[in-house]
Design brief:
mainly alpha
């Protein structure tokens, strides 16, 4: 005499997250034969939802970081352009200040190193 047949494996369509899993798991919870099986499938469902939420948060965080980087670069390039036009237009001090702020946004380590060399008297 054979025991109950194992359930069919769950398949996920390419490029989709846990949502196809959930409907199949809910179906298995309804068709479960024992309380232990219901508990197991409920735990599996909870873990899939947790992992899916983590992936969504991680993707959102990456998108925000990309936007922030692009905004910072764009703002720095804009400051360099405005600073250059101010210097050319005859507003030297203001133009150099804005130009320095733009360069600091693009290459902060280089700007910091440049001013450290000037303070210590090093010459390159």
């Amino acid at each position: 005499m054979r025991g109950p047949e194992p359930p069919e494996p769950i398949t996920v369509p390419e490029g989709q997250r846990g949502f196809p899993f959930l409907s199949q798991i809910e179906k298995r919870v309804v068709e479960a034969n024992s309380a232990q099986e219901i508990l197991l499938w409920t735990q599996v469902r909870g873990e899939i939802q947790r992992q899916d939420n983590f992936l969504i948060e991680q993707e959102h965080r990456r998108t925000l970081e990309k936007r922030q980087l692009l905004f910072k670069i764009g703002l720095s390039i804009g400051a360099v352009m405005v600073g250059t036009s101010l210097v050319v237009g005859g507003f030297s001090y203001v133009g150099l200040f804005v130009l320095g702020a733009g360069l600091y946004g693009l290459a902060p380590d280089y700007v910091k190193g440049f001013f450290r060399r000037r303070e210590t008297g090093e010459n390159r």
